[in-house]
């Protein structure tokens, strides 16, 4: 059996490194044809020497030159977004794993789906901001989007090939982050926000988990990926992070996917689908877990979750703007320019400023790119005003 050739875009981040763990584990089935990252020269060079891809791509030009000096002529080293698109569309690529942050890899995903390829998607921003045109393209060209998020992967597994019209309701579980019992402390310190009780993740996604915006983004992803209405997707707090999602069908049956919290399992599911093979994940011992708790989400305590539902009901332009505003607001908080409690205020300001003319029913990718840019600019302005107000209070 020929090994499946993977273009791993975002190889040096936590998801990318987990993908490479799975490739090592299943080296008889999988191989890496392309490694791509932003500017982590030392790490990607080490990966390239181990996995021997035909090509390495870096988004940063200076980093590209350094990697070229270290790896060529054995490895073809390229630079920039056009190289990502070419790699995704290449005949030597069977599957694209998109693990780059933000929307840097959007056009590479589009290129792969346009050729009917399989895309394993870890980047929430692509489905949240561009999910409608991306999924329309996938359906039209025969491409497939497989979600790497543990919660969305769980929904896919629970469906087991059934049509999504069989779904009455999807229940997305949330660990709740560090503040789920009491809601958001408006002046929480970054160190406290980053104390996630279950998962080890990057700073941006950990902040999103604390505000529950991460769950709001997953609600949007679920609606886009499976074609569901907002009222069909419900989050619940599940502190143990053992049950990753549940699907209720029209006959009243509820199926759930359970496993220990380990991203390598949903990653392997994507890379080997529809096959099931032994994984690196430890066996789940329910007796050792002892108790599985579920708690209703108090939406009033988590305004970011309410904003996500508001944007979803407004339409695809609003979810694109929401995502851009959240990225700006979280970066401003991490940079100590705004308070933790200011994050939802920045996002609300952007949604309120979204003109009716900016909300077409079925915007294309080019239109959404413009909406994303203007929303980011408005969010930057709103965050700067909050920063100025904060500085004046200190004087």
CATH architecture heading of the largest domain: 3-Layer(aba) Sandwich
Supply the number of structural domains.
Answer: 3
The level of helicity is 40-55%
State the CATH topology of the largest domain.
Rossmann fold
Mean pLDDT: 93
| β-strand amount | 15-25%
Which term fits the overall shape? Answer: globular
CATH-assigned homologous superfamily of the largest domain: NAD(P)-binding Rossmann-like Domain
Q: What's the helix-strand series?
A: EHEHEHEHEHEHEHEHHHEEEHHEHHHH
Could you name the CATH class of the largest domain?
Alpha Beta
Report on the architecture of this protein.
By secondary structure, the chain is an alpha/beta fold. It has three domains: 145 residues, Rossmann fold; 142 residues; 73 residues, RNA polymerase sigma factor, region 2, helix turn helix motif (Rna Polymerase Sigma Factor, Chain: A), CATH 1.10.1740.10. Helix content is 48%, strand content 15%. It has 16 helices and twelve strands. Strands 4-3-2-1-5-6-7 form a seven-stranded parallel sheet, with helices on both faces. It has a five-stranded mixed sheet with strand order 11-10-8-9-12, with helices on one face. Helix 3 links the parallel strand 3 and strand 4. The longest helix is centred in the last third of the chain and has 30 residues. 46% of the residues are buried. The model has no long low-confidence stretch (mean pLDDT 93).
